[in-house]
Amino acid sequence: MPVTPALYVRQEAAESSPEDSSLRCLLCPHSCLLQNGKSGICGVRKNEHGDMSLPFYGHISAAAADPVEKKPLYHFFPGRNIFSAGFYGCNLRCPFCQNYHISQQFPGEGQETPPEELVEAALRENSIGIAYTYSEPLIHFEYLLHSAQEARRRGLKNVLVSNGYLNEAPATRLLPLLDAANIDLKSFSNDFYHNELGGSLEPVLRFLELAATRTHLEVTTLIIPGKNDSPIEMERIATFLADLNPDIPLHLSCYRPMYRYTIRGSTYQNLAPLLDTARRKLRYVYPGNVPGETNTLCPSCGELLIRRQGYRVSLHALKNGSCAKCGLHIAGVWE
Q1: What is the pLDDT of residue 1?
Q2: Cα–Cα distance, 57 to 54 (Å, whole number)
Q3: What DSSP state is assigned to residue 224?
Q4: Each residue of 135-187: pLDDT tens digit?
Q5: Angle 202-218-96 from CA coordinates, rounded to 5°
Q6: Which backbone phi and psi does 33 adopt, to 5 degrees?
């Protein structure tokens, strides 16, 4: 199988020979400088004698047909299934990662799944499209680009579930191929991003700005007690998103102890005041990882539009993308 060339890489001059050249990866904000034989922070982009190699190109860590609500996407083809594909590696180091066994651990030799085969698998599942998810898909940029192009050619939708930690040039190249995205905004504190995750906040905010005008966007914040659960921080998150578009759905999800975090889990009682804060700015704010119903109501008249009980979804007064009672257009991609 032909080698796929890596994009967004610059060769740094070497005094000895080209094979000893360092490579600067320009894909994400880390801008890793890779010596010969070394990989970047993400673990999936490697300097092989002066050429950037992609040793995990097309290596799928997990695949399943999921309800689209699991991404979570609540305003995008409700009640439908989407074929979900995961990868290996990540360019952040979240100590609460729910998928650390694939984001922070790597297998030996794996088998490549060509983009055409991934698309065929999605078609066999009668899926609306492909969700690139589970660990961090953006570090596999070349594979995403090829798969998204093939999926669109075959009439499938493309969905990104990501941390949004990508430079602007590749982002503007990929976003036109996406039909929807759910991006983690893990905090509105640069200190939290730097000290806890090994990254920075500003590139994520810039990615959200770009995505908000190019695809259907939803955002998730995992609420961690004592870390990102202050009303002031939630006010800042909601204000930022509302300035982009107050129709952006925001999911506030309960955290559970995972990976290196042993902080007590959050509950609906932790979420309730934050939901109220966010709803003063945003029209659609949902609790996540909680029992009970998470419904969509018309922000104008309060009519029940979509009922969700877990992943059981039923449409009520949503007709042709509008409230059947008052006629308000409801932001989303419905059919």
Answers
A1: 47
A2: 5
A3: -
A4: 999 999 999 999 999 999 999 999 999 999 999 999 999 999 999 999 999 99
A5: 65
A6: -100, 115
| pLDDT for 251 beyond 90 | yes
Q: Which of 231, 203, 187, 233 is nearest to 95 (CA)?
A: 187
Q: The tokens 């000893």 sit on which residue?
A: 20
pLDDT, tens only, 42-64: 999 999 999 999 999 999 999 99
Sheet holding 180-184, edge to edge: 62-67, 81-86, 129-133, 157-162, 180-184, 216-223, 250-254, 285-288
The per-residue pLDDT for range 83-114, each reduced to its tens digit, is 999 999 999 999 999 999 999 988 766 789 99
pLDDT band at 20 (very low <50, low <70, confident <90, very high): low
In the chain, which segments carry CATH 3.20.20.70? Answer: 62-290
- Of 217, 218, 283, which Cα lies nearest the Cα of 246? 283
CATH assignment of 62-290, given 3.30.365.10, 3.40.50.300, 3.20.20.70, 3.30.190.20?
A: 3.20.20.70
Specify burial of residue 63 (Cβ count, 10 A radius: 0-12, 13-18, 19+): middle
**Opening angle at CA 180, ends 82 and 83, nearest 5:** 15
